[in-house]
Amino acid sequence: MAKVFVPTIITAILGLILIPQVFFTVDETQLAIVTRFGEFRRSHTSPGLRVKVPFVDSVTKFDKRLLRADAPAASLLTKDKRNLVIDSFARYRIVEPLLFFQSLRSEREAASRVSAIVNSQLRREVALDLQEDVIGETREAVMEAITEASNRSEITREQALAFPDGLNNPEITILLEPVVQDPDNPVRARRPTGGELNEIIASAAPASLSDFQITYFQPLARQFGVEVVDVRIKGADFPIDVATSVFNRMQAEREREAAGLRAEGVQEDAEIRADVDRKVEITLETARGRAALLRGEGEGEAITILAEALEQDPEFYDFQRTLEAYRNSLVDTDTTILLDSNSDLFKFLQDPFGDTANTSN
């Protein structure tokens, strides 16, 4: 029993030691390279179970997902000579594990190198853009230009000619930048036209392009094995000393706008009140005119009715008016009235029928 048990234990121990040295796994989020005494042997970009020589081969794994490199905040000068403190970051991925391992060794070194490249291209691009382009709605175009420039690595003409098809290789980028730049209006580097490209292929320094600096680039992945996927600005602020003056100017502008709005409000209030007062006066005058018209019509109608009544019984009307005179002059008054005895006022007091002639007789 002991003879069987001991070899089994030894075999199990050896298996536990040897299996991790022979087999290794590559996760779907990883890339792996196998080196033997520091010399590259092979790379693995797809997930699965892999085999290596025990105790001789070493496995280095890298993250295949998007990685992030934070660039330090920097004070940059825009085309219109405005200072901006820009804080940015980049997202990149490893596309060539061997080149990455040979040139950068680790993700920490890669993040440092990528952030330096992005900061350099950010400084160059911001110098060609206005402040409103960097902080406004056109920021997306600025970010795309920085991303494209960050994926280029400068090389010499000889290195570019060593590519298959030489300068016609689609991986080679050639840019022409004016040698003399206007400090107030810098010009962006451009790609050569078809005719200019033929001249560059034929000669390293074409006479027609003597005013331009010719620069050759290869993809960044060919140098470091990484690809910059995206560059973003986390914040674009004014420097502290400039921000205070900017905020004060903004406050003064808002106060001036507020004062203008208040003045417009007061003027509009006066106009509305004047218009309302005018309408009220017109309404009142119209009402007064209408009232006077109705009053006149009423008085005319009353006179007409009164005249018609007088025509029907003049004697009764005369009697009524005399009674009203009695009431107004004789009732409840201390006034003494001296009248002729033949006055018409006494005609109904002397004769119920008002016949003064019979009374005097």
Q: How far do the termini sit from each other?
A: 184 Å
Binned, the helix content reads 40-55%
| Biggest pleated-sheet summary | 3 strands, antiparallel
CATH architectural type of the largest domain: 2-Layer Sandwich
> Can you tell me the number of structural domains?
3
CATH C-level label of the largest domain: Alpha Beta
Query: Which structural category fits the helices and strands?
Result: alpha+beta
Q: N-to-C SSE series?
A: HEEEEEEEHHHHEHEHEHEHHHH
User: Strand sequence of the main sheet, in spatial order?
Assistant: 3-2-5
Q: Work out the radius of gyration.
A: 55 Å
CATH third-tier fold name of the largest domain: Tetrahydropterin Synthase, Chain A
Overall 3D form:
elongated
Number of strands: 11
- CATH superfamily of the largest domain, by name, is Band 7 domain
Q: Classify the beta-strand content into a percent band.
A: 15-25%
Count of alpha and pi helical runs: 12
Mean pLDDT value: 84
Low-confidence stretches: none
